[in-house]
Amino acid sequence: MEDSTVVEFRDSTAPLGETLRGLAHSITGETVTVRELLNMVGEQGLLLALMFLTLPFLLPISIPGVSTVFGLVAIFISLGVTFNRVPWLPDRLLDRPLDAAKLSQAIEKGADRFGRVDRISHPRLQGLTQNAAMNRLAGLGLLLGAVLLIFPLGLVPFSNTLPAWAMLLLAAGLVQRDGVLILLGYLFLLGTIVYFAALGIGVLTGAGWVVNLFNR
Fold first, then answer.
1. What span, in angstroms and rounded, lies between the C-alpha atoms of 19 and 44?
2. Are the beta carbons of 34 and 93 closer than 8 angstroms?
3. Using H for helix, E for strand and C for coil, what is the string for 197-208?
């Protein structure tokens, strides 16, 4: 039986920034679902989908419920990238309604950033992008970034921004065959892990200090 949750992508030869502007202009009505957004994506497919999923976390625009929904969708897509398969996505995630106006605004603003990527990025260090094993490694990096993205730390500065940048650079590097962007993505991912570890150590240290204070 055919799986109704399989997402198909229409072909497009437009640059990333132009593709995103077209996506932003295609969003109409009061709400839009993740399924509708994915169906608007062009030939870059899963990777471009991952890139625009990071946009709300790079800009100072609050969209309720996006962190969990987009983070979970990003996990499934990252698995698809890692195993080179179109991923299965739960209907509950695909059909979750989101604020169309705010999302369109985030994508429109983010298009300028992708436009800059188009201008400075080109195939470099292709050993990091044209090898199946390296592509799987980048896919695992995307997966780790998506997991870090949904940590319940939304009020902590940079807790969403750092993994979002890591995912954006990794996905853009794979799309553009740009090993420099891939390396930058790994650096942001490492920085995210160090930052989260520092937060955890700080919380444990603070908790220990409070416990000792009351035990005196």
1. 10
2. yes
3. HHHHHHHHHHHH
Residue whose tokens read 């398969």:
85
Q: Which amino acid is at 37?
A: L
User: For the chain, where are the alpha helices, taking DSSP H only?
Assistant: 16-26, 34-39, 45-53, 55-58, 66-83, 91-94, 100-120, 132-149, 161-176, 179-215
- Residue range 100-156, pLDDT digits in tens: 787 777 777 767 666 666 777 777 887 787 777 888 888 899 999 988 888 766 567
Q: How far apart are the first and last CA of the chain?
A: 67
- Whole-number Å distance between alpha carbons of 82 and 77: 9
Alpha-carbon separation of residue 156 from 93, 169, 191, 200 (angstroms): 25, 22, 15, 12
The answer to whether the pTM exceeds 0.85 is: no
pLDDT in tens, 36-93: 776 666 445 678 778 877 877 776 554 556 777 778 888 888 888 888 776 777 777 7
